[in-house]
Amino acid sequence: MALLLAATAAVLPAGASPPIPMTFDAAQARRQATSPVLGASSADLAAAEAQADAAARLYRPTVALDAQWLHYQKTFDLSLLGALDQVESVASQLVPGIIGDLPGVPGEILQLINARLRQTLPEFFAALPDTVRIRGSQTTLRPVVSAVMPIYTGGAITASREAADANVGLVRALREQTQDLEDVQLVQQYFGVVLAQQAVQIAGETRDGFELHLHNAQLMEREGVLSTAQRLQVQVARDTAQRQYDRAQLEYDTASRALARSLDEAAGVTPESPLFVDRTPLPPLEGFITQAEGGHPLVAQAEARRRLAGAGVELARSRYRPQVFAFGTYNLDRDSALPIEPDWAVGLALRYELLSTLDRRSTLSAANARASAADHDRMAARDTVADLVTRTYNLVELARRDFVTLDSSLAAAQENLRVQDLGFREGEAPASALVDARNLLGSARLQRAAAAYEYVLSLASLLAASDRYDTFARYQRSSEPVTTP
């Protein structure tokens, strides 16, 4: 640990804040809060849900207030032929009665007046025009409330609502896939730093071991017990170990900076949760496959696309059917209404498209083809998920077995180094055997850590693929922590 702290301090700029210790659970909560990718997918899901909510109201009436300011002129041509004939007939019948009632007028004069009026009336009415033109102009404000409510749309509204709901399912599945990728990526980064920490520690201890061997070799060379060639072998091995330590430091710096950026932590992050391995085998593969086929985001996406395609088929079919709407209007200012405008009106409207620029038959054929493709995609998604679960399941099992078998290899490497070091100091073992023994021990330690890292990463991938990632924390708590031996 002292070597790791020294390595961490070496890569910190002067005056920089030390890294923040953080468990994996805390890192996961931080990633949920700061990930721009998850933020974007959450916004996409909110937008899809809002669209579905809007589509759910398509059955409601549309009510609008129209207000128009206008200046207009209207001309009416009224025919007077019928009216004049009736007036002339009535006048001819009334004149004798009116003339006969004049008191004090001699009869001969009344008859003369009557004759003259009868002769004049046709000429008078003939002089009147046959038509009268009335022209009026007005400036007015026309406020009208109108409402339209669909009664039957041939299934178009139902298909639109189904498409909106399916789109929500698709976007939600995409977000779940993004969440799974983010979870697995965090496992890769977080425990990758843990592996890099152990690699620095192992490389440092290997280098320190070669420093001790070199010191012993120099003493033995001065005493004439060891040749210069063998001392040089140890020195070359020590220099190689130093380069490996420098490389491990830089790899640790790269991994830790990547983790800090992904968690939006400028000061850096020091992982506190160790690698882990559960030595017991996993439950049967079939259980993982069954759950994956029912809950993996790829399967959910394929199912949502199938629903979208089905809604497209229904929408294409609705173009063959009539549409019925109820409507109504109400004039809020009857005094300013145009002569031809009603005060209010209600009614039903039926619309059937006889001819369209869009070929309805081809549109329906295309929708059916997309639905068929969606069905095939759904079956392919199930196969893909089953293959993914099988592959990651086997990777977990392989990493577990490697880790278990490395116990004996590590013990043998430690014993081999002890024997070779003792033989080297007694002059019975060559320097090359000591160098190989030290390198074998470092390699075995690093392989053990790498096997634990592969187990953790494969386990996270398997749980994400089988819709069981919520059990990752349980595996972490119940498994054996893996530290540097």
TrEMBL record:
One GO cellular component term: efflux pump complex
Source taxon at top rank: Bacteria
Coiled coil regions in record: 238-265
Signal peptide (residue range): 1-16
Record carries keyword Coiled coil: yes
Keyword set, alphabetical order: Cell outer membrane, Coiled coil, Membrane, Signal, Transmembrane, Transmembrane beta strand, Transport
Subcellular location: Cell outer membrane
Primary site of residence: membrane
UniProt GO molecular function: efflux transmembrane transporter activity; porin activity
Annotated family: Belongs to the outer membrane factor (OMF) (TC 1.B.17) family.
Name of the protein in its database record: Transporter
Native source organism of the sequence: Luteimonas chenhongjianii
Lineage of source species: Bacteria, Pseudomonadati, Pseudomonadota, Gammaproteobacteria, Lysobacterales
